[in-house]
Amino acid sequence: MKKKIGFIGCGNIAEAIIKGLLNAGFDTNDIIATNKEKIERLEYIKDRYGINVTRNKSEVVERSNILILAVKPKDVQDALKDINLEDRSLISVAAGITTAYIESQFDGRAKVIRAMPNTSSMVGESVTAICKGKFAGDDDLRYAYDIFSSIGEVAVLDEDDFDAVTGLSGSGPAYVYYMMEALVEAGVKNGLDEEVARGLARQTIFGAAVMLKETGEDPSQLRLKVTSPGGTTMAGIMALESSGFKETIYNAVYEASRRSKEMRKNIGA
Ligand SMILES: NC(=O)c1ccc[n+]([C@@H]2O[C@H](COP(=O)([O-])OP(=O)(O)OC[C@H]3O[C@@H](n4cnc5c(N)ncnc54)[C@H](OP(=O)(O)O)[C@@H]3O)[C@@H](O)[C@H]2O)c1
Is 269 inside any structural domain? Predict the structure, then answer.
């Protein structure tokens, strides 16, 4: 049977997934979305992508086989109110919210998939971790896999890994942006024009990412290949080592993972 997908929540991540689905050949008639109150946002999505939009959540549910819950964690409970899931499966991208919590919002055996994409989904380059809840089947997981493949790579993981995923790939793009900020500032401190430094830093990060992906080589090997003893790169790497670069990254991932757990606890989910 041809699947129809309904979005509850129509913000940034929903838009990225809609874009990915359409690029992957999904029919506009098979996608419908709703949000809470911003009618102009729904009109923008309809004009830009040609999918169906409605103010009526029940209509989204009625017209879909799969629901994608794309609301902020604090809005999950409200967004799930009055949804009769029946045989539909529900994919949640809400950060930190467990499948068990979502299952508990329904009577019976709700088929729930949890997914953690990242912001690079906007350009089709996310990496999305997915897992299934207690009542979802392999078919539900496979279908989620296909959906998130349209916005990048997908990893099927245990739900217990999701806080670590949040700390690494969920928040990771921001760490790279931060590193880019530092590279640009360092370039300026060393006499470069800011725009020039920005262009150099951006392409350096992009080129390194493409090298990693296309060669499939271990990053430490790639690093060693370009680090000759006594050379300039070696001097730079030694400065990173002596200022505790790796420990700083460990701390960032740890703290973001810890915050993910804390946020879940705060909303009892
Ligand atoms: N952005 C990312 O890259 C990313 C990555 C991974 C995970 N996530 C997760 O994805 C979720 C959404 O993030 P986002 O960045 O897309 O947020 P967003 O842009 O703020 O969008 C949230 C959407 O939820 C709607 N909404 C709120 N309450 C609702 C309700 N009761 N019923 C129906 N719709 C409701 C909002 O509608 P109104 O605008 O009308 O209020 C809005 O369309 C979050 O849980 C986040 O953790 C996002």
Answer: no
Which residues neighbour 56 within 8 Å (Cβ) at sequence distance 6 or greater?
A: 34
pLDDT of residue 189: 98
Average pLDDT, rounded, for the chain: 95
| Index of the ligand 1 atom closest to the CA of residue 94 | 45
Please determine, for residue 1, whether its predicted confidence score (pLDDT) is greater than 70.
Answer: no
Quick one: 147 and 47 in the same domain?
A: yes
pTM over 0.85: yes
Q: Judge if the beta carbon of residue 120 lies within 6 A of ligand 1.
A: no
* 132 vs 3 pLDDT, higher one: 132
Range of the domain at 148: 5-162
Report the atom number in ligand 1 closest to the C-alpha of 120.
3
> What does residue 54 show for φ and ψ, rounded to 5 degrees?
-155, 155
The angle subtended at Cα 76 by Cα 26 and Cα 122, nearest 5°, is 40
70 and 111 both lie in a single domain: yes
